[in-house]
Automatic annotation (TrEMBL):
It comes from the Eukaryota. GO terms for molecular function: ADP binding. InterPro entries: Apaf_helical, Disease_R_plants, LRR_dom_sf, LRR_R13L4/SHOC2-like, NB-ARC, P-loop_NTPase. Residues 515-756 form the Disease resistance R13L4/SHOC-2-like LRR domain. Residues 30-64 form a coiled coil. This is NB-ARC domain-containing protein. Keywords: Coiled coil, Plant defense, Repeat.
């Protein structure tokens, strides 16, 4: 019995130990089973977050049209599958019968746990995967070279200027402007191609974009070009704002240089999607335009003007195009040089004419080409397409008023046209119509001139003179002659056959050798006739004006004519008449029939002594009357004999600008007393004025009054009684541009700042105000 008890106790102890171990293992199994599922849930949540982050990044890149990496897509696919599988395991665990968190069905529970462990391991590996980039880089050509058709001449300086501005971090937008075909595109293409090769010390942009714009470009056109250049997929279902956002997102992440060629009008950066470069960003926008105003409207930090080639550079270029060298026949070289100069340094014209020159190796052929260039350049092969048509686009952009203003650069000789001369003719044409005084007319003219300058059709010279390029002149003449269909519509050549006048509308025969005109000539369409400075022309037949019913502008200044024919009265449409610097002694009474005359100039007609009564008073449309250094025989009372009644001048209610000559103090007082005439007086010539011994500030106030503040020129001539001229305060009263002293013996006292002081045939002593005489002038 004693031996049995220990055995029983030992067996019970072993059984209890076994039960204890079994219970402990079961407890541990239950705990680890639940922890496995919990860990799986945590990893699934972590994987889900990473999955969403990658999806967000991919969507962002897709908006920028960046294609996801293949390994990222594989990962996403695998992650999605593993998350579905893991969630199925978790859901199955939650749905089965458990005892102390352990499935009752031990076999199925064991399999489920094994799957959970495997899923956890796979998901863990997926979570540890890192993707520095999720999409392919945008495959962009950093720069695309432009084909340049010929060697570049004369652009070294302007190209260096462009490079200098482009390297300046403070300069973001650069405008390049100049006339058509002057080389703006070539300059921009050279700048583009300069990026094809790396340069030491230069920080190259990520992308250089060259866009060649059409004249009638639209926002959609530009956006399509940018989409293509930036490798962005074009979608028709997007609206312009959405497309702009895509462009902006791409460009904002790049250091870009955007080159816009041939910009005609202001481009709204925001609407297109072009981010405005910030100072120091290394991003640049550089554009070319014909319109200087576009540079301002586009916010250009710097403007660069491209000029025509200088004479020698143009000649070198022409030699290159025309294959002219030292061995070329001297006759050919001389004629070639003439042709080159006729192109005015315009590269497109030099190329066109030079290519023609290259096929001609005989002097007679070249002389014929010179004749064509002089008279009808549009007939030269290639000139219309390559030179005139591009220039015409700029001309077509102008208003009708500005185009008519440009006519007068074609109808006038000389490279330097004074602003004053243009104003006068524009008044006659009706381009400048409503103006209050000369300054107002100058303001209106200045606006027109600025418009033409901004369109690169004319150029300002020395402030008050302007010139038009010969090729622009040729273009306007070609357009005005209905693109060459009516060659004789405008006649501006020298030595024009009079017979051609019959079909012409405008004739400019200035400074030629015309010495005689036909007795009678029917010119039913003629509106403009310029015969000035034909110094051999002494007579105008009476019948010449009988059949010119449409004539509006007649310029006879500087001719040797001694009389106007009575038939001038038949020119009832005439608005402009200039007979200045002629030898005319009297005006015909029929002149009073010119009821539409707005501008009448007869200055420096020293021989003019007779004007019939009721001629001036009939010219009620006159706005501009210039009689300085001309007729001076005014009578102040209607009952007096001799001379023109001064009241006729006073009756001209529309008169705004007056130049007048007077020879008596009484006439001067009458002039200053008439408010309208006094305010209109710009040029005053005083002759004789006997009994006037001193002209000082107080007498100026007395004579001129407050009304005569618009005087620009004061001439004192042959005033034998005048002893002293005090001009100390004349600048405040008159602000004169010219003070002209002629045939006087006077003391000139005080300080005066006219633009010009003319002293002729005088004995003049000049001294400061309140100072003793010290010197002779």
């Amino acid at each position: 019995m004693p031996t049995i008890v220990p055995s029983i106790l030992s067996a019970c102890g072993s059984l209890l130990t076994c039960c204890k171990d079994c219970c402990c293992q079961s407890s541990n199994y239950a705990v680890t089973y639940k922890q496995t599922i919990t860990n799986l849930e945590i990893k699934v949540e972590e994987l889900s977050g990473k999955y969403k982050d990658l999806e967000t990044k991919i969507e962002a890149n897709k908006r920028d049209d960046l294609k996801p990496l293949e390994e990222v897509l594989v990962w996403l696919d695998s992650a999605a599958k593993r998350m579905i599988e893991a969630k199925r395991i978790i859901n199955k665990y939650k749905g089965i019968t458990k005892c102390f968190s352990v499935p009752v069905n031990v076999c199925s529970g064991y399999l489920l746990k094994s799957k959970a462990i495997a899923a956890h391991t796979t998901i863990y590996e997926l979570c540890t995967k890192e993707f520095p980039t999720v999409a392919h880089d945008r495959q962009l050509d950093r720069v695309r070279g432009r084909v340049m058709p010929h060697a570049i001449f004369g652009m070294k300086t302007v190209f260096q200027e462009l490079q200098q501005h482009a390297r300046n971090d403070a300069v973001s937008i650069i405008g390049i402007y100049g006339m058509a075909s002057v080389g703006k595109t070539v300059l921009l293409e050279k700048f583009n191609n300069d990026f094809l090769e790396s340069e030491e010390g230069r920080e190259d942009p990520d992308v250089v974009i060259f866009l060649e714009l059409q004249r009638s470009h639209t926002v959609e056109n530009i956006q399509k070009s940018l989409f293509s250049r930036l490798n962005i997929e074009w979608r028709d279902d997007l609206n312009p704002t959405e497309r702009a956002a895509r462009i902006s997102r791409v460009l904002s992440k790049s250091k870009f240089v955007l080159l816009l060629d041939n910009l005609w009008e202001t481009l709204n950066y925001q609407i297109v999607g072009i981010p405005l470069p910030q100072s120091g960003s290394k991003c640049k926008i550089i554009f070319t335009t014909r319109m200087e105003d576009v540079c301002d409207h586009m916010g250009a930090d710097k403007r660069i003007k491209v000029e025509c080639l200088p004479v020698e550079e143009a000649w070198r270029f022409f030699q290159f195009i025309g294959r002219i060298n030292d061995s070329t026949n001297p006759c050919l070289r001389d004629n070639a040089r003439i042709l080159a100069e006729m192109c005015g340094g315009l590269p497109a014209a030099l190329i066109t004419v030079g290519q023609k020159m290259a096929t001609q190796r005989a002097c007679p052929e070249l002389m014929h080409t010179i004749s064509i260039m002089k008279n009808t350049p549009f007939q030269l092969q290639g000139m219309k397409e390559k030179v005139l048509d591009p220039l015409k686009l700029s001309y077509d952009q102008l208003s009708d008023e500005s185009r008519r203003a440009a006519f007068y650069f074609v109808l006038s000789n000389g490279d330097h046209l004074p602003r004053e001369s243009l104003i006068e003719q524009w008044i006659g044409e009706g381009i400048i119509n409503k103006f209050e005084n000369r300054r107002d007319a100058i303001t209106k003219a200045s606006y027109l001139l600025r418009t033409l300058c901004a369109a690169s059709l004319i150029q300002n010279i020395h402030g008050v003179c302007y010139r038009m390029h010969p090729m622009v002149r040729a273009m306007i003449l070609w357009v005005s002659c209905e693109c060459g269909e009516r060659e004789n519509k405008w006649l501006v050549q020298q030595d024009v056959e009079v017979e051609k006048w019959r079909v012409a509308e405008r004739i400019a025969s200035e400074g030629n050798r015309i010495c005689a005109l036909p007795d009678e000539l029917a010119c039913p369409h003629l509106v403009f006739l310029n015969l000035k400075y034909n110094i051999l022309l002494k007579n105008i037949p009476n019948g010449l004006f009988c059949h010119m019913p449409c004539l509006k502008i007649l310029d006879l200044q500087g001719t040797a004519i001694e009389a106007l024919p009575a038939a001038v009265g038949k020119l009832v449409m005439l608005q402009f008449l200039n007979i200045s610097n002629t030898k005319i002694t009297s005006l015909p009474s029929e002149l009073g029939d010119l009821v539409n005359l707005k501008y009448f100039a007869m200055c420096s007609t020293n021989c003019l002594v007779s004007i019939p009564d009721q001629v001036i008073s009939k010219l009620q449309q006159l706005q501009w009357l210039d009689m300085q250094e001309s007729y001076d025989g005014w009578r102040l009372e209607a009952t007096e004999e001799g001379g023109v009644f001064f009241g006729e001048l006073e009756s001209l209610e529309k008169l705004k600008v007056l130049g007048i000559t007077i020879r008596t103090v009484a006439t001067l007082e009458r002039l200053s007393g008439c408010r309208n005439l006094a305010a209109s007086t710009c040029w005053l010539t005083m002759k004789e004025c006997r009994s006037l011994k001193m002209l000082d500030a107080s007498s100026l106030i007395s004579f001129f009054g407050q009304n005569m503040r618009n005087i620009q020129t004061l001439r004192l001539h042959a005033m034998s009684d005048l002893e002293e001229v005090n001009v100390n305060d004349i600048s405040h009263l008159l602000n004169p541009e010219v003070l002209h002293l002629s045939s006087l013996k006077v003391r000139l006292i005080g300080e005066c700042s006219p633009r010009e002081l003319k002293i002729e045939d005088c004995e003049v002593e000049r001294r400061p105000y309140n100072a003793q005489p010290t010197s002779q002038v």
